[in-house]
Design a protein that fits this description.
Length: 195
């Protein structure tokens, strides 16, 4: 399948992005670049200078809402991508409402309790919609430790161990690897595996 055929297949697909930080912003950009036709993005947070080391934002966007700035940045990449931007803290009811008509949802939250909430909500409220999660991306190196595990419609990408902290922060290379692996899993779901 050539790139034009890939874009043609993806233009009618919709992907939900829950969280627009390091994982969400980079995964969304990767999916926009390959031609996913519609992205539904949601985040309640604003961009801080400390985010610029790993998130797909620019210094002149500091203080802006992440979901609005990400929509703007994707529009600069490809004006044909429809981006529905929501400034909201996703809770179960909102999550189901926003992502009910998606083909796949990407979980890109920072906090463990929010990750747990989206997994539980998707498994009970939208069980037929695949969910791609990121877990264990702190620090640098250890590329060989980053894997994808699948449990029915739940896909978990990362090293499954390294938690972020002051001493082991999330930084661009590892966050980017996991985000792009998550986007690649989304493509496998939407297009099938390329053997």
């Amino acid at each position: 399948m050539n790139f034009q055929e890939i874009k043609k297949k993806l233009k009618n697909k919709t992907v939900g992005i829950a969280g627009c930080g390091g994982l969400g912003s980079n995964a969304a950009v990767a999916l926009a670049r390959v031609g996913v036709g519609r992205l539904i993005i949601a985040d309640f947070d604003k961009i801080e200078e400390s985010n610029l080391n790993r998130q797909y934002f620019f210094s002149d966007q500091i203080g802006s809402y992440k979901s609005s700035a990400l929509k703007e940045n994707i529009g600069r990449i490809d004006t044909s991508i429809q981006v529905d931007s929501h400034i909201t803290k996703l809770m179960p009811e909102e999550l189901i409402r926003l992502f009910a008509k998606t083909d796949v949802v990407v979980e890109a939250f920072d906090k463990a309790e929010m990750k747990e909430m989206i997994v539980e909500t998707m498994l009970t409220g939208l069980p037929s919609t695949p969910l791609v999660c990121g877990v264990g991306l702190a620090g640098w190196g250890g590329n060989e430790l980053i894997t994808v595990e699948q449990y029915d419609n739940l896909y978990i990408v990362g090293d499954h161990a390294s938690e972020t902290s002051e001493e082991d922060p999330p930084i661009a290379p590892r966050v980017g690897i996991v985000a792009n692996m998550m986007a690649n899993v989304v493509l496998e779901i939407l297009l099938g595996k390329n053997k």
